[in-house]
Amino acid sequence: MTRRDSVRLVAGSTLLAGCTIPHHAPTAAELSGAMPMIDAPIVLATWNHGKPATERALAELAAGHSALDAAERGVMVVESECPDRSVGLQGWPDRDGIVTLDAAIMDDTGRSGAVACVRGVAHPIALARRVMDRTPHALLVGPGAEAFARSEGLHTGARPLDPEQERAWREWLRERQYSPRANSENHDTIGMVVRDAKGRMAASCTTSGLAWKMHGRVGDSPLVGAGLYVDPKAGAAVCTGLGEVVMRKLTSCIAVERLRSGASPAEACRDALHRLVEAGPLAANVQVGLIVLAKDGTHAAGALQPGFTYALGTAAGVTLHEAPAVA
Ligand code: ASP
Predict the structure, then answer these.
(1) For 293, which of 102, 147, 236, 303 is 20 to 30 Å away at the CA?
(2) 303 in a domain, yes or no?
(3) Integer Cα distance of 214 and 210 in angstroms
(4) pTM score, whole prediction
């Protein structure tokens, strides 16, 4: 069954079990993304696995934690368990049979941290947060990032491929075909944008990147401006999809800059995706999904192709939606 087949779009909303979010239930107009949600927490996250991640992020906010904490801990849920094999150590390996992970986190004070091409780290988003909080740097890669993980107690050690990873990798080796397809199961970053009740914003991304990538390949997810971007004057955005397209066009940054110039989230989304369409063959037949959250709580999502799903979390609960396609 493909991800598209399995998506269940939830009409209406459900209360979030076990959590009390001390704000009014959003109106239909607020939930549509077009009306501001003043002083109410809001979380958006990519793909179907955005739902459990969003539930966790809302629980963190309900417990009084910041947008930044919620953005970190929300995506950790998918790092721990990802049936799509696109996030965390259970992700599909590269063509050498090695799982390498990328992650980044950013808040609205301009601080960010990221790691790329790391092995043996179960929670790369936590490592990215440590880069932000405890180093003078913005991005650590490969063995240097792993050494930092060891010093922070975040290195979980090399582990062999599990039987399913091993089987899929050996199957791939027979053909050695590399052609990422829109909405195929060989990529699906978890990306999240959060605004807490105090109006603070944060964004996070974590991924095993594209299955069967060359060893050493890094995608858009750990790159500020490409995979994620936050601007306190405007809002936040995250991307998922073919990183080689997003990192060449700085899609998240363009979306947030459009917000800053006065565009609505829907306009910002459409304009940033159109920049990809303008790129012609580079973006033909590939998927890029984009989530945009303005600082007033208005929000939108869009994608190059149909099939990009995202979770929306508010005081009313978490619902799954399919984003409109521009192509
Ligand atoms: N953007 C990720 C990458 O290129 C993959 C994804 O989001 O699906 O590594």
Answers:
(1) 102
(2) yes
(3) 9
(4) 0.90
Check pocket membership of 221 for ligand 1, CB cut-off 6 A. yes
Distance from Cα 187 to the centre of ligand 1, integer Å: 6
Find the length of the chain. Answer: 327
Answer whether residue 5 is part of any domain.
no
Instruction: Kindly report, residue by residue over 77-87, the tens digit of the pLDDT.
Output: 999 988 888 99
Q: What is the whole-number distance in angstroms between the Cα of residue 221 and the centre of ligand 1? A: 6
Alpha-carbon distance of 307 to 320, in angstroms, equals: 12
Q: What is the pLDDT of residues 230-244, one digit of tens each?
A: 999 999 999 999 999
Say whether 189 is catalytic.
yes
What's the CATH number where 147 sits? 3.60.20.30
Domain that includes residue 82, residue range: 10-322
Q: How many domains does the chain contain in total? A: 1
- Which 3 state secondary structure label does DSSP give 137? coil
Rounded to whole angstroms, the Cα distance separating 115 from 121 reads 10
Cβ–ligand 1 distance for 91 under 6 Å, the answer: no
Task: Single out the catalytic residue among 100, 189, 298, 314.
Answer: 189
Any domain includes 1: no
